[in-house]
Amino acid sequence: MKFPLLLAAALLARPAVAQTPAAPSDSPPYRVAVGVLGSYRTVGLLGEVRARGPWALKLAAVRQSDGTVPGEYSAAGIGLLTYYLPTALKTVEPMIGVGGLYSRYHWQQRGGRGNVHDVNVGGSFGANVRFHPHLRTGLQLFVANGFRAEYDEGAATMRKAGRRLLVLPALALEVLL
Length: 177
Known about the structure:
About 10% of the residues lie in helices and about 65% in strands.
């Protein structure tokens, strides 16, 4: 009984395999990609300009909030020089990048509010999967040398109190132009 079911499943799947879209390697190369990224507490826009060969300039604008304190959030602008690692699989695009990060932490506590600004270095790595000649999705992990903020009672403001490693995982969906 199992053999006829397996044979029927294989024969039914054959027309579906014949209708799969062309491999991304058959599609025209892209120069620009635009998209969105997000995670459980992050939302942002993503852009990429493809340079020569495996190199690209990736830009992201991100807003993050954990919702614990109303009115508090972080915003960041990220610029990365990205290298796409070669792979035998044409639908998978692993990448690694390094670049700069501008962040702004908007705080609102004890009747006061303000912003703490920071400029630092960061990087990213991850992989994309091209499931259509002009669409791809992927997981990216942004890593930065971020800051830790503490409330200063004497000055009644928020100040940088040290450094910490920030890790921002994000899912991305991009349109390739």
